[in-house]
Amino acid sequence: MSQPTTAANNARQQGPASYGPAGGMDAAASYRAAMWVFPACGVVILVLSAALERPIEVGVAADSHPRLLGLGASRKIVFKLSGLFAVDAFGGGFIVQSFIAWWFHVRFGADTGMIGSVLFGANLLSGLSALAAVPLARRFGLINTMVFTHLPSNFMLMAIPFMPTFGLAAAVLLARHLISQMDVPTRQSYVNAVVEPGERSAANGVTATARQIGTAVAPLIAAPMMAAPALAALPFVLSGAIKAAYDIALWVQFRRVKPPEERSVKGS
């Protein structure tokens, strides 16, 4: 599909959210400055983490289970969850935000200001949805909240490339982000609830690493599809289908594995 000349020119001339050029900075310099924000945030996190004291860690009780990657009695459930989380992250890697931004530009000729506004709104809604996940999880349980908010969001993801206008595509993306990230706090809570207290740090490390590996692989497959106009919709469809399969598999395998607080409520 041909790209509107004015939109393409605007996209080349603008920096992040158009503020760099407005301040007399060229596009390349404004993007370069924005990229330095990431390591700066990392330094802040490092300082805050280093300030934490040892008593925050749960003591590791002696047991007879041999340990692998810091895991003993919880190893089986953590490895099963890690495999599922890697599949979910692999699906998500097909539509990383840089690919979504590229697709909006190629498909609709949207400039960086428009795309930045949409992605800002999407991330803001994702953050707010994490707060809404708490009462839902308390009412319906962690696994049910993870699955039944995540699953419809994946069908919306598959619908995005078939929207005829920028406004509709952006609206579906925003609606998706309103519920798609509710599984993040519930997933983390579930992992910490179903493993031995002394293995929580190891469990979080193993599951997070599995997700990072899954995320890293998918863009290598999705990028050539995005580069071919005839295949540009395929990453959205594949991502939604893979993530939906993850939701179903998670519910089938873990719907009866309840965290202690849910077992106590049921038994009371």
Give short descriptive properties of this protein.
13 helices, disordered N terminus, Growth Hormone, Chain: A, 268 residues, mainly alpha
Order of helices and strands: HHHHHHHHHHHHH
Q: Examine the coordinates and then state which fold CATH places here, giving the name of the CATH topology of the largest domain.
A: Growth Hormone, Chain: A
Principal-axis shape equals: globular
Poorly predicted segments: 1-15
Please report the first level of CATH classification, the CATH class of the largest domain.
Answer: Mainly Alpha
- Helix count from the secondary structure assignment: 13
Roughly how many Å is the radius of gyration? Answer: 21 Å
Beta-strand percentage range: under 5%
The CATH homologous superfamily of the largest domain is termed: MFS general substrate transporter like domains
Note the main sheet.
Answer: none
Gap from first CA to last CA:
61 Å
Query: How much is the average pLDDT?
Result: 84
Count of individual beta strands: 0
Class by alpha and beta content: mainly alpha
